[in-house]
UniProtKB/TrEMBL annotation:
Mn(2+) 1 binds at D252, H334, E372, E411. This is Xaa-Pro dipeptidase. Keywords: Dipeptidase, Hydrolase, Manganese, Metal-binding, Metalloprotease, Protease. The gene is pepQ. Signal peptide: none annotated. Splits dipeptides with a prolyl residue in the C-terminal position. Residues 12-150 form the Xaa-Pro dipeptidase N-terminal domain. InterPro entries: Creatin/AminoP/Spt16_N, Creatinase/aminopeptidase-like, PepQ_N, Pept_M24, Peptidase_M24B_aminopep-P_CS, X-Pro_dipept-like, X_Pro_dipept. It catalyses: Xaa-L-Pro dipeptide + H2O = an L-alpha-amino acid + L-proline.
Length: 430
């Protein structure tokens, strides 16, 4: 999509947000809403701050992920007003905004103070944001019903939002290819991370989340957070879970690559990808997301059986006896937007058999979800299984040969359309 078409979609997006927010304000008895972008707190006992990425509702309107101490005023029947914090400061630079059409829709003002602006006759005002930063603002703070209603405005993405998510996917895939090449060249986790950042042109601090880059057994830690600086002697596997932020919107992609000579593991990777693609095709209006999660466990059971990891049980028994949950302990995915785990996903608690599932809704057009089945060899989950009654059905020799590979996860970002789905990750995958 050409850049001018994207910017035109942004104007449509802002008009839609104005309409949604005016309805929410009226329903909750407010005339105006003041949104604080937020600011990074200081580290305890230090004069350095944590890195900052911005408050969700502020990003929903502006996409300005790194702008601290800004304020956005939404009023029914009025043009939104955005105060940008631009102090006269020789320590730090004030980042200039490129001139774009949205600046005709939102009135821009410069503010040299981080404090909330003085409002002229705003009526009944709600203020939302980090409680520590809005504490001194004499208005109603973070009303629960209002916040819940605002979360709902982010459930159905506009055409602009879906295009931003697609762009974030395209950029991240360039990084994933670079990471795969670095792995093939025998690089360390740290060097693979650098290759990913170089290819995407985005600092890790500005990415939507800390990239998970695990070689060998590290791939079995779901949110592995360290990078070894030395390559492993025998590179058996790479799991990389990494995204890019584009105009405030996040991609969240995971790929797993088998090392040389790992034929059994490579077959599992291939089998899980085939399952993952079938699960992505289930995404459609009217589908209960919990059903996709349960279908994933049926697919994992079939894969465990076909690979010889589990023997002597039907696929149904493998699921019912909890074996699949030891190999696949997390949920099938979540909402995606200006937050990686976007809001409003759980109007009802997850079922007992899926305690970590982050999305329990029936899918509707405009929703964007991740689909990320996994199959892992996690000692703390497998040892109790092996010691129990079902342990005799586990092929220990095959399992032990795979433990050093850690695990597999494959993840795409999928938009629900009027008639089915659009896989934002596979759309642009080369």
């Amino acid at each position: 999509m050409p850049e001018d078409a994207l910017l035109s979609l942004q104007l449509d997006h802002l008009k839609e947000l104005q309409s949604r927010y005016e309805s929410v304000l009226a329903d909750n008895g407010f005339d105006s809403l003041l949104i604080a972008s937020g600011a990074a707190p200081y580290r305890h006992g230090d004069d350095q701050r944590w890195h900052f990425q911005g408050y969700g509702p502020f990003l929903h309107w502006t996409g300005l992920a790194g702008r601290e101490n800004c304020w956005l005023l939404i009023r029914s029947g009025h043009k939104p007003v955005l105060w940008l914090y631009e102090p006269v400061d020789f320590w730090h630079a004030n980042q200039a905004l490129p001139e774009e059409p949205w600046q005709a829709f939102i009135e821009l003002r410069s503010n040299q103070s981080p404090d909330a602006p003085v409002l002229d006759d705003p009526g009944h005002v709600a203020v939302i944001g980090d409680p520590a930063l809005i504490d001194g603002v004499a208005r109603e703070h973070n009303p629960e019903d209002l916040l819940a209603a605002l979360d709902e405005t982010r459930v159905h993405k506009t055409a602009y939002e879906i295009e931003c998510l697609a762009r974030a996917n395209a950029l991240a895939l360039v990084g994933h290819r670079a990471a795969r090449d670095a792995f093939a060249n025998g690089e360390s986790e740290f060097s693979i991370s650098l290759a990913y950042q170089q290819a995407t042109g985005q600092r890790e601090a500005d990415a939507p989340y800390h990239s998970i880059i695990g070689l060998n057994e590290h791939a079995g830690t779901l949110h592995y957070q360290y990078y070894d600086t030395r390559p492993p002697g025998h590179p058996r596997s790479l799991l990389i879970d990494a995204g890019v932020r584009f105009r405030g919107y996040c991609s969240d992609i995971t790929r797993t690559t088998a090392g040389p000579g790992e034929s059994h593991f490579a077959a599992l990777v291939h089998g899980l990808e085939r399952l993952q693609l079938r699960l992505c095709e289930m995404v459609a209006p009217g589908v209960d997301y919990v059903d996709i999660h349960r279908k994933s466990h049926q697919g994992i059971a079939a894969l465990l059986s076909a690979s010889g990891l589990v023997t002597g049980l039907t696929d149904e028994d493998i699921v019912e006896q909890g074996i699949t949950r030891a190999f696949f302990p997390h949920g099938i995915g979540h909402f995606l937007g200006v937050q990686v785990h976007d809001v409003a996903g759980k109007p009802t608690p997850p079922p007992e058999d899926a305690p970590f599932l982050r999305l329990t809704r029936t899918l509707e057009p405009g929703m964007v979800v991740t689909i990320e089945p996994g199959l892992y060899f996690i000692p703390s989950l497998l040892e109790p299984l092996l010691a129990g009654e079902v342990g005799r059905h586990i092929n220990r020799e095959r399992l032990n040969s795979l433990r050093g590979c850690g695990g597999i996860r494959i993840e795409d970002n999928v938009a629900v359309t009027e008639t089915g789905n659009r896989n934002l990750t596979r759309d642009r995958q080369g």
